[in-house]
Amino acid sequence: MSMLRSLGVIVVFLATSVAGTAQMKLFDNFNTYACGYTDSATFTLQASAHIGKIQVWYHWRSHESSVRYTIFRNKQAVGDGVLSRGECDPYQDAWCLADDSAGMNLDRGTYTIQTERPRVCQNDGSGGVGFVKVFGHFTRIHE
């Protein structure tokens, strides 16, 4: 039984490590406390990964549906894109997800997403950095 359980863990691990498989959450610092604004959100990857989707919690202006962003590592730009207005809070319709299907490979390390306008939610629960979720899959087992 123990051997079968170990084999099952290996199969699940390999399934989440192979390109083209379902995305898993690689980073998430969202919480339910009140927000202030910032123009950036920071996340850390524990291993090299293919990033399939990025989400930040963003306070949208009326009729606004997209915002540009740049990803930095050690103050060097490593990617950019456009976040699109996604699912909103049912009680505060200006607070919505800002999504992008990033489709980029990033090495292990700490990254900062900077938006063109300072409307990303941040609070003490997120360590004072913007709320961000990163989805994808790890590309290396060991580094």
Commentary on this structure:
This protein has 143 residues and is mainly β. It has one helix at residues 2-17; strands spanning 24-28, 36-38, 40-45, 49-59, 66-73, 76-88, 95-100, 104-106, 109-115, 120-122, 132-138. The chain has one domain: Jelly Rolls, CATH 2.60.120. Helices cover 11% and strands 50% of the residues. The strands form 2 sheets. Strands 1, 3, 4, 5, 6, 7, 8, 9 and 11 form a 9-stranded antiparallel β-sheet that branches. The protein has a two-stranded antiparallel sheet with strand order 2-10. The radius of gyration is 17 Å and the shape is globular.
Largest sheet: 9 strands, antiparallel
Could you tell me the CATH topology label. Jelly Rolls
Number of domains in the coordinates?
Answer: 1
CATH class category name: Mainly Beta
Oligomer: single chain
Name the helicity range.
10-25%
Range of strand content: over 45%
Distance between the termini: 31 Å
The shape, in one word, is globular
Give me the CATH architecture, please.
Sandwich
How many extended strands? 11
> Number of helical runs?
1
**Class per helix and strand makeup:** mainly beta
Low-confidence stretches: 1-19
Order of secondary-structure elements: HEEEEEEEEEEE
Please describe the topology of this protein.
Layout: H1 2-17, E1 24-28, E2 36-38, E3 40-45, E4 49-59, E5 66-73, E6 76-88, E7 95-100, E8 104-106, E9 109-115, E10 120-122, E11 132-138
Name the descriptors.
143 residues, mainly beta, Jelly Rolls, nine-stranded antiparallel β-sheet, two-stranded antiparallel ribbon, 1 helix, 11 strands, globular, disordered N terminus
